[in-house]
């Protein structure tokens, strides 16, 4: 189906949006001012809007978006040495003459309305665009910012310069004149190197094999790096090996939707997210395998980055995760304060991710000592 490209003034909802440019609420001199520094229109549609439409369509194909959407384009902003993009100032570098532009976009389809935005530079001599730093929640399935009645929606519709119908499988009769950031790339690699936290030849009846999982998406600004271990047991213990590795993946690949029991990480639904997870083995013998897991993350809508530690221990005879009650004994009180537990003197700090935390246990008692602990729910790191 041939994609129809329409230049319009975007009347109110319910009116015919396909109108003659001469009747548009934007006068021609305003349109010329709007696209100053950009190429002349190769058809009824300005070259900039045409290329943005093709770029959005490329995203439809890359992220498997079905159906047809109406794209409402607001005025193109910028054209000076820099422009504000999603709260960040994109400045012109000392070694480049690139001029930055930004355009607010509203996509409307059967699945709802989506607040979008595209930033780009334009080389007038080469008639070439470079798209980057875009905000495209439709591709991550996040409709948080788009609602009818929202001021953004109202502003885009009131100031709409161009409306275009976009579908994944439609044809746009125009050459591509842009470069863009890459879409998702996922790798899960077996590491051949020996890391400081373990040795393949450990003399035990099992081996620890380090793996590295990576997920990059430049277009949605996602960077996830997870280094996790995989256990290899001797022949005949495949069931125990499978149990341990399944629990390890759950420990390293959990997500952030705490209300959902199936909260494993789904990187394709993230946006503006950086996650880094890695581990250190604290005990490795025939009885127990214990490790500490460190995480750093920074996500859109969060006030600041987060970092924390968790721990997990396995009984290497059964493959089950060890709880603190298994170490202290089942006759222990089910609930006690953290200070009561640490005052027993059975715990000592072997190592800290943060070097300046010299007396980590005393600091923990001071900050969290009154917190009640349910011993039967706590996993143990030995």
Describe the overall structure.
With 382 residues, the protein is α+β, with helices and mostly antiparallel strands. It has 2 domains: 175 residues, no CATH class; 139 residues, Fervidobacterium nodosum Rt17-B1 like (Heat Shock Protein 90, 2-Layer Sandwich), CATH 3.30.565.40. It has 7 helices and 17 strands. The protein has a 7-stranded mixed β-sheet with strand order 1-8-2-5-6-7-9, with helices on both faces. A 6-stranded mixed β-sheet has the order 10-11-12-13-14-15, with helices on one face. It has a two-stranded antiparallel ribbon with strand order 3-4. A hairpin with a 4-residue loop joins strand 6 and strand 7. It is elongated, with a radius of gyration of 28 Å. The N terminus is likely disordered.
Short description:
The chain has 382 residues and is an alpha+beta fold. The chain has 7 helices and 17 strands.
Largest sheet: 7 strands, mixed
Q: Looking at the structure, what is the overall shape?
A: elongated
The number of E-state strands comes to: 17
Mean pLDDT rating = 77
Q: Spell the H/E element sequence.
A: EHHEEEEEEHEEEEEHEEEHEHHE
Strand order in space, largest sheet:
1-8-2-5-6-7-9
Identify low-pLDDT runs: 1-35, 39-45, 92-96, 195-199
Q: Into how many domains do the coordinates divide?
A: 2
**Beta-strand share of residues:** 25-35%
**How much helix, percentage-wise, in residues?**
10-25%
CA distance, first residue to last residue: 63 Å
What is the overall number of helices? Answer: 7
Question: If you compute it from the alpha carbons, what radius of gyration comes out, rounded to the nearest whole angstrom?
Answer: 28 Å
Q: Structural class, please?
A: alpha+beta
């Amino acid at each position: 189906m041939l994609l129809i490209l329409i230049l319009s003034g975007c009347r109110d909802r319910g009116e015919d949006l396909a109108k003659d440019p001469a009747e548009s609420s934007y006068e021609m001199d305003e349109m010329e001012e709007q696209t100053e520094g950009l190429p002349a229109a190769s058809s009824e549609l300005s070259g900039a809007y045409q290329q943005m439409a093709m770029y959005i369509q490329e995203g439809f194909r890359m992220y498997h978006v079905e159906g047809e959407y109406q794209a409402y384009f607001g005025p193109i902003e910028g054209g000076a040495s820099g422009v504000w993009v999603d709260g960040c100032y994109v400045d012109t570098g000392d070694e480049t003459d690139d001029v930055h532009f930004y355009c607010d976009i509203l996509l409307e389809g059967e699945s709802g309305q989506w607040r979008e935005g595209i930033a780009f530079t334009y080389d007038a001599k080469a008639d070439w665009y470079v798209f980057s730093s875009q905000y495209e929640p439709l591709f991550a399935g996040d409709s948080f910012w788009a609602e009818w009645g929202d001021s953004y929606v109202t502003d885009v519709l009131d100031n709409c310069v161009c409306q275009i119908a976009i579908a994944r499988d439609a044809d746009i009769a125009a050459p591509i004149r842009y470069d863009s950031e890459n879409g998702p790339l996922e790798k899960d690699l077996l590491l051949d190197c020996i890391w400081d936290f373990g040795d393949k030849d450990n003399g035990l009846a099992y081996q620890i094999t380090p793996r590295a999982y990576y997920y990059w998406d430049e277009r949605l600004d996602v960077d996830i790096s997870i280094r996790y271990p995989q256990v290899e047991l001797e022949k005949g213990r495949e069931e125990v090996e499978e149990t341990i590795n399944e629990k390890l993946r759950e420990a390293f690949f959990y997500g952030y939707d705490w209300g959902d029991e199936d909260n494993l990480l789904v990187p394709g639904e993230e946006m503006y997210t950086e996650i880094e997870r890695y581990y250190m083995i604290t005990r490795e013998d025939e009885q127990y395998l214990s490790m500490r897991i460190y995480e750093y993350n920074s996500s859109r809508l969060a006030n600041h980055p987060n970092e924390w530690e968790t721990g997990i221990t396995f009984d290497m005879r059964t493959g089950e995760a060890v709880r603190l009650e298994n170490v202290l004994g089942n006759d222990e009180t089910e609930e006690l304060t953290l200070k009561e537990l640490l005052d027993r003197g059975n715990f000592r700090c072997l190592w800290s991710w943060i070097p300046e935390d010299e007396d980590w246990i005393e600091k923990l008692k001071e900050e969290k000592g009154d917190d009640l602990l349910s011993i039967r729910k706590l996993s143990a790191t030995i």
